[in-house]
């Protein structure tokens, strides 16, 4: 196996963070990956070390001989993966360019980088970026070595389909996934997409039937759409409340449905819950803005107290049982 190792360059540059490459024959090579293509990996390795100076060489390895790579820790990369903000997109694009050929390689972070980049593109709100995200996460779903990356790619792909203008396709796939999957993340995302589609149907229905309350032929359909949309939006918070981002998205959707119905007490109550339980999410900021925009009397609405009062007023009151008259003690007859 020594034939595939050839020294290309000798230098005295200091070696930084290092990767550990394991070959299929069990041998290991440690060094910095300089470049990679479809056939060859160029690795900078230490030859000798004397004080601060290190003699290094660049060697070439056949990609086909690699079993896996243990990549060096990169704190800056980890920060970018956690944030995945639009501002991180340019740096993540560079990370992906370096890592993309390792997507199928065990221990590679390529899938995580691609998913972070896809999320960063989605957060720009641009259709062109959404289409790029869709292509990228579809590749991860197909080729990543890590099952968890492939699972996450499915839920990101659903959001990318909606953002790129393929909402109908996303709803069809989400409906299918909701029936088949047991994975919580995919199920939550599928339900949120179905909730958005149901909300669009509800809005269309209300535009076409502005006097639905007076029409016995459509009133049941309005109630069905309203209840179904709320159920789907509330699903993340009710059953997976620790998934902060999706629970907050669902609650904000529920607030919109309450507002659409003119149900201000429940809109206010849900906004309070969102702001209290998910304060670090963007939706919490929207909820606070919504509450601040209301007049004081509406902001003070209490849906739970109103529900308790309504329940109490509608409950049958027990009929008081008449008390038996107290018998007076009989007087003893005098002898």
Q: Let me know the number of strands.
A: 6
Q: Strand count, sense and closure of the main sheet?
A: 6 strands, antiparallel
Give the strand order, joined by hyphens, for the main sheet: 1-5-4-3-2-6
Q: What is the average of the pLDDT values?
A: 87
End-to-end Cα distance, whole Å, is: 133 Å
Helix content: 55-70%
**According to CATH, what is the topology of the largest domain?**
Serine Threonine Protein Phosphatase 5, Tetratricopeptide repeat
Using the CA coordinates, give the radius of gyration.
32 Å
Shape: elongated
| Uncertain residue segments | 1-16
> Architecture of the largest domain in CATH?
Alpha Horseshoe
Along the chain, the helix and strand elements come as: EEEEEEHHHHHHHHHHHHH
Number of helices: 13
The CATH class of the largest domain is Mainly Alpha
